[in-house]
Amino acid sequence: MSKCRVPNLVHFVYGMREDRSDRPFSLVHYVAFRSALETHGPARLVLHTGYVPAGPWWEAIAPHVQVRIVEVPTSIHGNTLDRPEHRSDIVRLDALLEFGGLYLDMDTISVRPVDSLRHHRCVLGIESTPGTGSHGLSNAVVMAEPGSAFLQRWRAAYTSFNQDYWNTHSVVLPRLLAQQAPPGEVHAEPVESFHWPSWDETGIRSMFEESHDYPGAFVHHLWAGKTWKSHLAHFTLSSVWALDTTYNRLARRYISKPLR
């Protein structure tokens, strides 16, 4: 039997600035947390935050969440971190380095247990750029053992961080580091595991306007940077039941009965 290296902990990061009125804790976030709880059955689900969320959907899930207040990073190796997304990038690396486990972005929905991947030292999923053939390794879903050597090298490489470039250190850099990594240090999962359908118009339509099955998925990444204003911000209990889309069918699993 393969050694289980990644502990059964789930981590989320939120509240990297005090004002989150642009993306309040919503039904989509509730579903992200609840789907993680019910799909992965973690020993602990931890929210790493500088500012604790509020609102009815947070109150509904909060009893099942361990809140860990963190100091919000504003720089890394002398380089400024202004965007909450870039601050979150550092907090997730630090959380996984300290505790190990499964990190999930707030705009995810878990659909299948990741137990078959726990023997790897570190797991990242391929993120493709539609129509180009290029790809990276995304940090929206990361699995790692505590003290992961790959995550240590990744964090150290933030000496070259420039916040003017959106995804260089969160998608492009890990692919380059993985190409140089010794055997067994990091495992790349196919795009279907975490990041499919993709963030182009076809992918967004197939998730939120059409109904499809994706049997290869462990987690779906919902691409909030592209879909928050158009889709995610508008989900309600009524709208999730109104139309049989890919996301709505999955989300119904987690709102149709009380969480114990």
Topology:
Blueprint: E1 9-14, H1 27-40, E2 44-49, H2 56-61, E3 66-69, E4 75-76, E5 79-80, H3 84-99, E6 101-104, E7 108-110, E8 122-128, E9 135-144, H4 149-156, H5 168-180, E10 187-189, H6 191-194, H7 201-208, E11 219-221, H8 224-227, H9 237-242, H10 246-251
Parallel strand pairs: 1-2, 1-6, 2-3, 8-10
Antiparallel strand pairs: 4-5, 6-9, 7-11, 8-9
Task: Tell me what you see in this structure.
The protein is of the alpha/beta class and 260 residues long. The protein has a single domain (9-254), classed as Spore Coat Polysaccharide Biosynthesis Protein SpsA, Chain A. The chain is built from ten helices and eleven strands. The strands form three sheets. It has a seven-stranded mixed β-sheet with strand order 3-2-1-6-9-8-10, with helices on both faces. A hairpin with a 6-residue loop joins β8 and β9 (135-144). It is globular, with a radius of gyration of 17 Å. The relative contact order is 0.16.
SSE pattern, N- to C-terminal: EHEHEEEHEEEEHHEHHEHHH
Mean pLDDT: 95
Instruction: Return Rg in Å.
Output: 17 Å
Number of β-strand runs = 11
CATH class: Alpha Beta
Structural class: alpha/beta
How many domains in all?
A: 1
List key phrases describing it.
single chain; 260 residues; alpha/beta; Spore Coat Polysaccharide Biosynthesis Protein SpsA, Chain A; seven-stranded mixed sheet; two-stranded antiparallel ribbon
Summarize the structure.
This protein is an alpha/beta fold and 260 residues long. The chain is 33% helix and 19% strand.
